[in-house]
Amino acid sequence: MATLPPIVGPKNLETIPSRITESHKGSCLFKVVEYSSPKDYYISSDIFSIGGYNWNIEYYPFGYMTDDEHYVAFIIRLVSNVKDLAVKVNFTVLAQDGKSSSNFEFPNKIENGVAQPWHLPYYMRREKLEEPKFLNGDSFTVRCTIEVFNDEIKIHCFEIPPSNLSQQLTSLLETGEGADVSFKVGRDTIHAHKSILAARSPVFKAQLFGPMKGMKNKTIKVKDMEASTFKAMLHFIYSQSESLPEFEELKGNRAASIAVAQNLLVAANRYGLVRLKFVCEIELYKFINEDNLGDTLAFAEEHNCSLLKVTCENYLRQPSALTF
């Protein structure tokens, strides 16, 4: 039988919320004395607690509305400072033998402290209440049962393995498995996948799925580009890595790093790879100094490199601004 993955720390977690409704139920007895000679418009019970909330009962001997003289009325009031709460309330007038009688129950929503709908209190006909089995010694007892429904959001954490999509796509490039297009770059033949190239480059999309789509020769010649540059560009397309291996391998070799970055930037412009162009601009930005400022500015203007151009122009206006 399959088992759930273990609950782990915050890394690579997916939180799945689930709503669980729990209820808490309790009752309170409220005894009303001097029934025949009420002194107030309504009588309030002591505060009691059910479901973690405080309540009290209000008894209206003359009815809740002006035309309710033939009824007595009860209202349950939420004393705790809670705006909304789902409850079910049951009022039962007890017979003198303590047994239940004359139930009246409604599902309610507490809003602003009062059971809603507020204009529908719990009524009992006066003549019914005055029957001997309920009224004894000018008093009667009512039992209020409240069921509180709490919606609780519980979060379950499950470990999700990190994505290895870039590694899988890079593996396709390296092995050539499933390749359906080839490029002849210098003496090298490089295999790739049309759909991946078209998804990442608008130029490849037009080239592979435009007018040349039905060509019989599946090998495309790439002119004016070194094979190493084309391979590095494809590696970026497949891996989407911000740190190209070519840059890592050339650390410490300033001239070679600049040449690789410039060649890749030209390739990025040629194939509409905006993100790769930006990565190359940042790489070239690292090598700007007084000696290559003029050449870098000329390169930036020729290939529309806004980051490099602004940096060089700022330095020309204020040499001290160029700090690394």
Question: Which short descriptors sum up this protein?
Answer:
five-stranded antiparallel sheet, Apoptosis, Tumor Necrosis Factor Receptor Associated Protein 2, Chain A, 324 residues, 31% helix, alpha+beta, Potassium Channel Kv1.1, Chain A, disordered N terminus, 10 helices, single chain, 2 domains
Q: Can you characterise this structure?
A:
- This protein has 324 residues and is an alpha+beta fold.
- It folds into two domains: 17-156, Apoptosis, Tumor Necrosis Factor Receptor Associated Protein 2, Chain A; 166-321, Potassium Channel Kv1.1, Chain A (2-Layer Sandwich).
- It contains ten helices and 13 strands.
- The protein has helices spanning 126-129, 165-175, 194-200, 202-209, 227-239, 245-249, 254-270, 274-285, 293-302, 306-317, and strands spanning 13-32, 43-44, 48-50, 53-60, 71-78, 84-93, 103-111, 114-116, 122-125, 140-159, 181-185, 188-192, 219-222.
- A five-stranded antiparallel β-sheet has the order 1-10-6-7-8, with no helix packed on it. Strands 2, 3, 4, 5 and 9 form a five-stranded antiparallel β-sheet that branches. Strands 12-11-13 form a three-stranded mixed β-sheet.
- The longest helix is centred in the last third of the chain and has 17 residues, at 254-270.
- The radius of gyration is 40 Å and the shape is elongated.
- The two termini are 59 Å apart.
- Residues 1-13 and 110-120 have low confidence and may be disordered.
